[in-house]
Amino acid sequence: MLLIDCPWCGPRAELEFRCGGESPIVRPPDPQATDDAAWAEYLFHRDNAQGASFERWHHRFGCGLWFNVARDTVTHRITAVYGITDPRPAPEGQR
Question: pTM value?
C-alpha cells in the first residue's frame, strides 16, 4: 500500500485517495473545431510509461482536494507531491 503525503492533511494511506489518471491532460481549446482523431487522443491515449509517471490524485476521504504526484510505476516510490497548478518536477536523475 502506498503512503501518500497529502499537501493539506499530511501522510495518509492510499485507501483514502482516488487516482485521477495522467497529469496534465489538456482539453482541446475549441471543442467544436476538434476532429475525431484529436478527441480520441484527448480521451483515450495515455503514455502508460514504465518508470517516471505524473498523476492527479483526489483525497476523497480527507480534505477532498486534488493534487499531483510524481511516482515511479515500477517501484511505486513517490518522488514528489505538488499542487495542480504547480509546474511538473523533473524526473529523478534528470535535474
Answer: 0.81
